[in-house]
Amino acid sequence: MIRIRQNHRRSSTTTIAVLLAALVLVGCSPTAETTDTSPSSTAPQQVLDAVKAGYESTSVPPPAVGPKPTAGKNIWILSATQQVYGLAQLSTEVGRAAKTLGWTSNVCDGQNNVGGGWANCVRQAVAARADAIVLESIDCGAVKAPLQEARNAGVAIASLTSFDCDDPTQGSSEALFDASIEFLKDTSTPNAFFEAMGKLRADWIIAETGGNAKVLQVTFDGVAFGSYLAKGFNDEIATCENCKIVSTLALTPNDIPNIRQKFETALLQAKDVNAVSVDVDFMFTAGIQQALISAARPGLVVAGGECGRDNLEYIRSGGGQQMCVGNSIGHIAYAGMDQLNRHFAGEKPVVQGVGWQLVDVEHNLPASAGVDFEGPVDYRSGYESTWTGQ
């Protein structure tokens, strides 16, 4: 089993083990109070400050005022693949939010776009006379023609974490989405949101390695949010004088069946790395977690993604993955439905308050095992109050 990396700081001659695995973005100076749990390192102070701030959730309550739900809408939820737990759970949460709004919903599994599954889902929704299509990790560029057909048929297009056709990763053409989540006031767009998450992961690794990170980076290619996660990570690692990305393993959706084999090969070749960065948490469950346990590299720092249910248990167990950047799947789902409801009512989009929070074995893990990360915001009651006016 991989030994959880322990960080140390000096307080006279006493050494205290503090961070046992996680998105430990905590920071302090050597003269900090003994109750501070931040690591001693040569990392820049701004990095240590970012690590410390990372434990505090950036999520805020949802908008308190909104239009009355437009009843009777029929929405189609288009999932990139229901074989990934996070997407399957996102589909479930969107359905719950839709039901609360008085809408009906159907889920179409894009099956990782095998046989043109994504375009098929769009066209099925149009044929079923859907009022709206909700895209889950299906970017505009991959289904541009069928989305234009949907718009021509009067079907609204909503996005949760997908990227519109006007994004540079999608060809910088005409935007086709009618409703997209505005996450936070200063991080409103999906590209800014995912870049910030990637930056935070880099800060944690820099802090954990004392400003001497030698990283095996695992990226998710072919999906826009993966590009922005990697950009945020790479840009921040570049600010660290003694840090570098030793090797990059770029995985695509087609690589899912072979993730463990590909990662084991990359880790074997990257003998000098002291850190592993994995952009998306499903990659751990698809084989990286097992490979890390089998490799048993003492002192290896392992940073993960968005805090999937299984990943929280990996962190809790003390082996392999050590941290993640928590996003509430439910908050994302309800925020997307609120934005779509505002579109139906002819109102402008608003900031939805969806943020993130660092999670490790000592901080922010759910009290019970086997549950999803929700964060500290009671978004469900908030949206229900907004939608019912009570």
Structure commentary:
By secondary structure, the chain is an alpha/beta fold. It folds into 2 domains: 10-59 and 191-326, Rossmann fold (3-Layer(aba) Sandwich), CATH 3.40.50.2300; 74-185 and 329-353 and 377-388, Response regulator (Rossmann fold), CATH 3.40.50.2300. Helix content is 36%, strand content 14%. The chain is built from 11 helices and 13 strands. The chain has helices at 45-54, 85-100, 117-127, 144-152, 190-208, 224-237, 259-269, 282-295, 309-317, 329-344, 379-388; strands at residues 10-11, 14-15, 74-79, 104-109, 132-136, 156-159, 179-180, 214-220, 244-251, 275-278, 301-303, 324-326, 357-359. The strands form 4 sheets. It has a 5-stranded parallel sheet with strand order 4-3-5-6-7, with helices on both faces. Strands 9-8-10-11 form a 4-stranded parallel sheet, with helices on both faces. The N and C termini lie far apart (52 Å). Residues 1-40 have low confidence and may be disordered.
Cross-sheet strand order for the largest sheet: 4-3-5-6-7
User: How many individual β-strands?
Assistant: 13
CATH architectural category of the largest domain: 3-Layer(aba) Sandwich
CATH H-level superfamily title of the largest domain = Response regulator
